[in-house]
Specification:
- With about 350 residues, this protein is α/β, with parallel strands linked by helices.
- Helices cover about 35% and strands about 15% of the residues.
- It has twelve helices and 16 strands.
- The strands form four sheets. Strands 1, 2, 3, 4, 7, 8, 9, 10, 12 and 14 form a ten-stranded mixed β-sheet that branches. The chain has a two-stranded antiparallel ribbon with strand order 5-6.
- Helix 5 packs across helix 6 and helix 9 packs parallel to helix 11.
- It is globular and about 60 Å long.
- It starts with 6 loop residues before the first strand and ends with a helix.
Length: about 350
């Protein structure tokens, strides 16, 4: 089987360089590393802080860092990055510099697509009160047109990931769009006028969401709460007993990664136009402290089992649609990443390569 038939795409966070907004909201020079390195263990056996290995504490303003990331991902079977894209309405963007430089420079020569993080930024993202730092706005049709035209250069780039001659575009919270169908119909119309067969819309939402009603081609879920919900359905009363024993006010919410993946059966999503999104690990206590969630004892081997289940699930799909998302490539302050660290080295990446070898 052609290895291109399994398309592993990793979500990519650009918040690894200082911006005026983060300087103002948090501290001078704030980046994702700021929270990552200040993390401390909050209970017995809690591994913190997580420290990068091969790539170091990189700065995404540096082209060589971006190229090293792409080289590492490509070597291990990841087809491309899904760059988080922040468009708050009326042309307002944040964290746009890394992708802009990737687009303009042509480097790295590595596939990509965009994922619109269409949510307001609040202080709770870093453990503060739920104050709005910057509001996500939807000014209307004209802004949708401006947004599309702004991204047209990216859509036309030979590196942009497509399905059926449609640029893949992911919307983080499609339920927040005032009129999802207006948005998708308009962009599809504009895409047709520009030589595409439309946009391949993927929405991240509840598994029972009627995505076709809003003009989306497929859907995915990738919040830790989804994993917990699936685990609860699988274990029933035993799950409630597990949680009751583990909930303590003085530590984060802690659950076993092994129990999570053993509860997860991708077959429950058959016939739902569903794209798996896998969490290799999770620990967002660097951001939220004792209010955070920890998937305890995640390992490369357990992630490999989870990935293999996802590969088997997508094997029956048409070649271009054999997509698996991994969240994330580099969400370090969520303890959610594939990049090498001091604990595991590059073993999470090696697992991806090893699993794919079994199928081609």
């Amino acid at each position: 089987m052609d290895k291109d038939n399994i398309r592993i795409l990793a979500f990519y966070l650009p918040q690894f360089y200082p911006t005026p907004e983060n300087d103002r909201w948090w501290s001078k020079g704030f980046t994702e590393w700021t929270n990552t390195i200040k993390a401390i263990p909050l209970f017995k056996g809690h591994y913190q802080p997580h420290i990068p290995a091969d790539l170091g504490f990189y700065d995404l303003r540096i082209s060589e860092s971006r190229e090293a990331q792409a080289d590492l991902a490509q070597q291990h079977g990841i087809e491309g990055f899904c760059y988080w894209h922040y468009w708050f309405g009326n042309g307002k963007q944040l964290l746009e510099r890394p992708f802009k430089e990737v687009l303009e420079s042509g480097k790295p020569d590595y596939p990509f697509c965009l994922a619109w993080a269409n949510q307001s930024w609040t202080g709770i993202w870093h453990g503060l009160k739920n104050e709005i730092l910057i509001e996500q706005k939807y000014p209307g049709k004209e802004d949708y047109v401006d947004h599309f035209n702004h991204l047209l250069k990216a859509f036309n780039d030979q590196r942009y990931i497509r399905v059926e001659n449609k640029p893949v575009f992911i919307v983080y919270s499609p339920q927040l769009l005032p009129d999802g169908r207006l948005f998708t119909d308009l962009w599809n119309e504009m895409a047709l006028k520009n030589g595409f067969d439309g946009i391949y819309f993927i929405g991240i939402h509840d598994i029972n969401w009627d995505h076709k009603k809003d003009g989306f081609n497929e859907k995915s879920v990738h919040q830790p709460t989804h994993y917990i919900h699936v685990m609860e359905q699988h274990l029933g009363r035993r799950f409630r007993n597990i949680i009751r024993r583990r909930i303590r006010k003085d530590i984060p919410f802690v659950v076993s990664y092994q129990e999570i993946i053993e509860s997860y059966d991708f077959n429950m999503f058959k016939d739902k136009d569903f794209i798996p999104t896998l969490l290799p690990n999770w620990d967002n206590t660097p951001r939220l402290g004792k209010k955070g969630w920890v998937f305890k004892h995640s390992t490369p081997e357990l992630f490999g089992k989870h990935l293999e289940s996802a590969v088997k699930y997508v094997m029956d799909k048409p070649p271009e649609k054999k997509i698996i998302f991994i969240k994330s490539w580099n969400e370090w302050a969520e303890g959610n990443y594939l990049e090498p660290d001091l604990q595991w080295g590059a073993r999470y990446l090696k697992v991806i390569k090893d699993v794919l070898k079994k199928y081609y």
